[in-house]
Specification:
The structure is a single chain. With 205 residues, the chain is α+β, with helices and mostly antiparallel strands. The protein has one domain. It has two helices and 13 strands. It has a four-stranded antiparallel β-sheet, with helices on one face. A three-stranded antiparallel β-sheet has the order 7-6-12, covered by helices on one side. Helix 1 runs antiparallel to helix 2. It is globular and about 50 Å long.
C-alpha cells in the first residue's frame, strides 16, 4: 500500500541471518513525541541489548544478529539509525536448530479487543532441544519465550512502548490515519510450531 504517515512511531528491525537466509523481527515503538535522532539511537540499542541478553538464549547458535535498524515513520523518507556493534552476537541455546522454516508465533496483545489491536512476531529459529515431539515445543520453552517477549515489553516502557499500529479496521483503511494500541502482554496460545516458508534456503532472502 502507499505510505501512510504514523507520527511519533519508530519501526525497529532486528535483522539476522540463518543458513544464508536474511530474517528479521520487526517492532513498532511509540516515542510519545516527535521522533528525535536520540530516540532512534536509544530504541535500536535497547532492542539489540534485549536480543543479546534475553532473546539469544531462546535461539540456536545458527542465528546471527547483524544489525538493528530504527526508522521514523512520521515521513516517507524519515530519519534512520543503524546499530551494529559487532558481528559475533548469535543465539546461545544448546543443541542444533530445526529447519529454517520452523518457527513459533508470539502474540502481542493490547487491552483492546479485535484483530486490529493485536500484533505478533515469529521466532527467528527454533532449537531442536525445544521440542517434545515432531510438532510441539515443550512447556518450558513456551514459558521461556513468553517471558522473553514480556521482558521486551517491560524494558521499552521507559524508552518507547511497543505498540500496535493499526492502519485498517474491518479491511478498510482507517480515516485520518493509523490508530495506536500499546502492547501490554505477550502470549503463546499453543505449543504447535508454525511455518515461515520464505525462510527456506533458496526460497526467500
Amino acid at each position: 500500500m502507499a505510505f501512510v504517515p504514523a507520527p511519533n512511531i519508530m519501526m525497529v528491525e532486528a535483522r539476522a541471518s540463518v543458513a544464508g537466509q536474511n530474517v528479521e523481527n520487526r517492532f513498532m515503538l511509540n516515542a510519545l513525541h516527535a521522533v528525535a535522532p536520540s530516540d532512534l539511537e536509544n530504541a535500536a540499542i535497547n532492542i539489540w541489548n534485549w536480543w543479546e541478553i534475553v532473546y539469544a538464549p531462546q535461539l540456536p547458535g545458527s542465528v546471527l544478529l547483524r544489525e538493528v535498524v530504527s526508522t521514523d515513520l512520521t515521513l516517507q523518507n524519515g530519519q534512520q539509525f543503524t546499530y551494529a556493534p559487532d558481528t559475533t552476537t548469535t543465539g546461545t541455546a544448546a543443541g542444533g536448530a530445526l529447519p529454517n522454516e520452523v518457527s513459533v508465533c508470539v502474540s502481542l496483545r493490547s487491552t483492546a479487543r479485535g484483530r486490529s489491536s493485536r500484533g505478533r512476531f515469529f521466532t527467528l529459529a527454533v532449537p531442536s532441544l525445544a521440542m517434545v515431539d515432531a510438532n510441539n515445543i515443550s512447556a518450558a520453552y513456551r514459558s521461556a519465550l513468553t517471558s522473553a517477549a514480556q521482558t521486551l515489553i517491560t524494558n521499552n516502557l521507559a524508552i518507547a512502548p511497543i505498540t500496535i499500529v493499526s492502519y485498517f479496521s474491518n479491511n478498510v483503511p482507517r480515516p485520518g490515519g493509523p490508530v495506536y494500541f500499546p502492547v501490554t502482554t505477550a502470549l503463546i496460545v499453543d505449543t504447535v510450531v508454525d511455518s515461515m516458508r520464505r525462510r527456506k534456503p533458496g526460497v526467500g532472502t
